[in-house]
Amino acid sequence: MKALTLTLTQPAKPKFLQIARAIISAIKQGKVNAKEPLPSARQLAAELKTNRHTIMAAYQELIAQGWVQSIERQGYRVVESIPVESSRHARKSLKCEKNTFIWQINPTAFELDNSKPAHEYSYNFAGGNPDISAFPFHELKPYMSESLTRPRLNHLSYGNNRGDDQFISQLATYLRRARSITNKEIITVNGSQEALYLLSQVLLKPGSKVAVESLGYRPAWNAFTTAGAELVAIKQHSKGIDIEHLTQLVKQQSISLIYLTPLHQYPTTVTLPIHERGKIYQLAAKYQIAIVEDDYDHEFHYSSQPLAPLAANDPQGLVIYLSTFSKIMFPGCRIGYMAVDKSLAPALINYRSVMNHKPNVLMQDAIGRWMKEGSFERHLRRTTKQYQQRRNNLISQLEQYQEQGLDISFTIPAGGMAIWLDVKKNAKELERFALAHDIYLVSESGFHLDKENDENRYIRLGFAGMKPEKMNQGLAILFSYFNQ
Ligand SMILES: Cc1ncc(COP(=O)(O)O)c(C=O)c1O
What we know:
The protein has 15 helices and 16 strands. It has 484 residues and is an alpha/beta fold. It holds the Pfam family Aminotran_1_2. Residues 13-81 form the HTH gntR-type domain.
């Protein structure tokens, strides 16, 4: 039996673990080989000036980890096939180098996006970007603390995949008051993207057709096409979607779902007039087509109360209403919700169990408490006022550039978090110029379903996320493009 000189490191760990670790490193370094005997517990205890039981505990640990075996009347030995050798051997015999495994990834509907995230740019004009730095974390803190101090233990367990009951009841009150939505079942989700995915899995099958705005929200399209659906573009004009074109589409093709952003059309920000909404509803009812109404930033409407959603007047129960806390809080909270007809809710809740047992009910519990207390509403009023000021600042800046002779035009959006700016030409180049100058924005081409419809003349300028001084600096750099 070889003498084993062990060096003990990591004094913060219990002695037996230090010894076990030292023996593992002796084995790894080849100081003792496979099948070779190890010193007895008595010997090692004397050498290390420690208790024999400590050495026995170290050997037990090594046996449990698969490095050592104990053989009757022979004592402890290194195992025949030591973990480090067998993986080295496997690599040698398969002749494979590190990192050469090739994954067989399914061809998917989405493109991998490796570009730099919007928030890493000095000037972030992303359209749906809230001002996270202005979020009142201190106001939410006592409610989070209360949720942890007085946790509702039953709610934290498995079961009830619909969401936290108290949060849902607050949402129901809020939706009734703010959006006149009653008579629907609320399901909470980890952001509205999860809702879009759930809906696509439950309502669509390969070959189903989904009518979408021709300039629209790509993450929703990705969810639909991942289920095998085909997207059909609805033409748009200055008032939103072209109902006559939608009518033709539903007459000629078998459409299963219509996905719309009627309040602040994404990305053009146009508000669909009330009578047009009625026509869409009649059409959907006549042809028995479900509507997904994505009301993602309804809180931010400035000139009047936001127009009532389609879901507020839905006698047939065909409208699936979606909204999110990503804009009124921050995208990282991952809280969204659907309000759906009672007949659809069980399928969605059951399907969600396939991907997730439960949403984050602790966060929901805290937000529910915040909503109940009323300071949530104050936060909404404050943020709406602030975003309205930022919209007005952007408008006045753009008007000044117009006065200086810059050929740009826009319609003042009644709400939302962005302006759809007509720069008349070279929008894509302007976008490239912006990115190269540390400014994030997206030009028209990024929003088209059919690239051939790209007029290459619009950019989307988000105004909510940046303070006015910063926004103005960003605009000055951006518009220097036209002086080149
Ligand atoms: C049209 C639209 N729907 C939904 C969302 C919000 O998605 P989520 O709740 O998954 O963060 C956004 C955010 O940009 C959006 O623009």
